[in-house]
């Protein structure tokens, strides 16, 4: 092999006598744990290092061939993402498409899920870093929604923030479906609207600046983690109360929002999740096959035990684990062990 250039494009690999894998051979050479190929065996150090370098070069050439054929192309649909392979392969494809552009209004333009353009808050230490560097947020939840939401269905995204899940849902339900998004924070609601417009989803998804609570209120006071630039157009909407930034928004019970039925609801407002659930009794009664994805945080709910007891009386309690599959849980486990979880609530078995 010496003196001959290594092939670069999908080279045909020779069929030599079967040898141990590359990693075991490296370990064997380093620690002299193997047989004839360990240090002091049949091959000299120089010969073994030369062989290892050659095999690594062939592996790199193969990886470049994969990137050229797959990794750098646009991802057409979410269905294609799910067909692309296992989770690590999909995440790698999405990361390979990330790109960011800082803007003078305090936002950053990035690419999510390999194809959607999104504005996020440059000062956000929570969700934005994941979108900027990885191109996705809570991939296990993303994959679960992809499996359990179908074309033509109606979905609600309560506590939409930038609209990551709103956009995901709109793409899944298509032009035949509808998505309703609630985001009470005025700065985030503005970014949400821009993201829907930017991705051409205004005909499918509607964004409203409302807070989901147990009954209609003119002004619900809510904490404001993100407020945009201090001299921005929404600065006057945020005030100080008890040492923290807050804002107000109109409150509405979810049972008052329904017009023609709903199939899937994501409730991402962990701080007021119990209030949102308390206001959706009529929605649950009128939609027996409703599927709910609920962000639960025992420390942030005012009455976590009462909310879980009410939900357990209607649905089997399930938690969506890191592998994106929903598994049974109990009120005790959620209150004493997990404390923070994504719940799946439905009479229907999850996919």
UniProtKB/TrEMBL annotation:
GO molecular function, one term: methyltransferase activity
Keywords: Methyltransferase, Transferase
Domain of life, per lineage: Bacteria
UniProt record, GO biological process: methylation
Name listed for the protein in its UniProt record: FkbM family methyltransferase
Organism annotation: Neoroseomonas alkaliterrae
């Amino acid at each position: 092999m010496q003196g001959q250039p290594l092939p670069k494009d999908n080279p045909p690999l020779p069929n030599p006598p079967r040898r141990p894998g590359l990693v075991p051979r490296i370990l064997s050479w380093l620690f002299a744990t193997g047989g004839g190929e360990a240090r002091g065996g049949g091959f000299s150090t120089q010969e073994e290092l030369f062989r290892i370098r050659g095999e690594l070069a062939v592996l790199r050439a193969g990886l470049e061939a994969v990137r050229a054929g797959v990794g750098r192309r646009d991802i057409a649909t979410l269905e294609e993402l799910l067909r692309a392979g296992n989770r690590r392969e999909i995440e790698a494809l999405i990361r390979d498409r990330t790109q960011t552009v800082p803007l003078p209004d305090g936002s950053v333009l990035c690419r999510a899920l390999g194809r959607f353009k999104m504005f996020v808050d440059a000062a956000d230490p929570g969700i934005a870093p994941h979108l900027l560097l990885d191109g996705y947020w809570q991939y296990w939840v993303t994959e679960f929604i992809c499996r359990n939401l179908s074309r033509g269905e109606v979905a609600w995204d309560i506590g939409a923030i930038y609209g990551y899940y709103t956009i995901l849902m709109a793409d899944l339900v298509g032009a035949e479906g509808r998505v309703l998004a609630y985001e009470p924070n005025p700065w985030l609601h503005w970014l949400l609207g821009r993201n829907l417009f930017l991705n051409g989803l205004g005909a499918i998804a509607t964004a409203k600046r409302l807070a989901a609570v147990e009954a209609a209120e003119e002004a619900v006071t809510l904490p404001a983690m993100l407020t945009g630039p201090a001299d921005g157009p929404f600065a006057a909407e945020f005030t100080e109360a008890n040492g923290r930034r807050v804002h107000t928004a109109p409150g509405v019970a979810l049972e008052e929002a329904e017009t023609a039925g709903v199939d899937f609801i994501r409730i991402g407002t962990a701080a007021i999740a119990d209030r949102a659930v308390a206001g959706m009794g009529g929605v649950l009664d009128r939609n027996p096959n409703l599927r709910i994805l609920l962000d639960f945080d025992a420390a942030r709910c005012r009455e976590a035990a009462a909310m879980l007891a009410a939900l357990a009386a209607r649905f089997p309690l399930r938690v969506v684990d890191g592998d994106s599959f929903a598994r049974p849980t109990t009120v005790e486990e959620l209150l004493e062990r997990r404390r923070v979880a994504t719940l799946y609530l439905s009479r229907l078995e999850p996919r």
